[in-house]
Amino acid sequence: MSRPFHPIMNAALLALCAGVSASALAHNPMCECKAIDAEQIKCTGGFSDGSGAPGVTLDVIGYDETILVPGKLGADSTLTFKKPGAEFYVLFDAGPGHVVEIDQADIEAP
Asked: How far does the signal peptide extend, from start to end residue (predicted)?
């Protein structure tokens, strides 16, 4: 004869499983920008679970907070833009808690 779980044990087991599944579903934003040549930069965005980010906002912003190049990632989760003359950073914004900033100094040279 098997012994049923105690109600408190059932609740503890359920809470443990819920915590594990919530962390398993979490995914972090990722974005990488590389210079293609002296004038063009290509950024690729996505998530740590391997999914892409088509349609996600990727803006090029000046140090004075002016949006220099407004953009959205294409179907291939990339955006290519002309390098601005002013100092800038790239903002990948997939919503609250899913934001990545890349300073121009961190963009790989060709």
From this structure: 1-26
Tokens of 40: 């063009």
The pLDDT, as a whole number, for residue 21 is: 40
Domain contains 60 = yes
Give the total number of structural domains in the chain: 1
pLDDT per residue as tens digits for the range 44-90: 999 999 999 999 999 999 999 999 999 999 999 999 999 999 999 99
Q: Tokens 């965005």 belong to which residue? A: 45
CATH code for position 45: 2.60.40
Q: Phi and psi for 52 in degrees, rounded to 5?
A: -80, -175
Query: Which pTM value belongs to this model?
Result: 0.76
Beta bridge partners of 43: 33, 79
Name 29's Cβ contacts closer than 8 Å, sequence gap at least 6.
45, 46, 47, 48, 53, 92, 94, 98, 99, 100
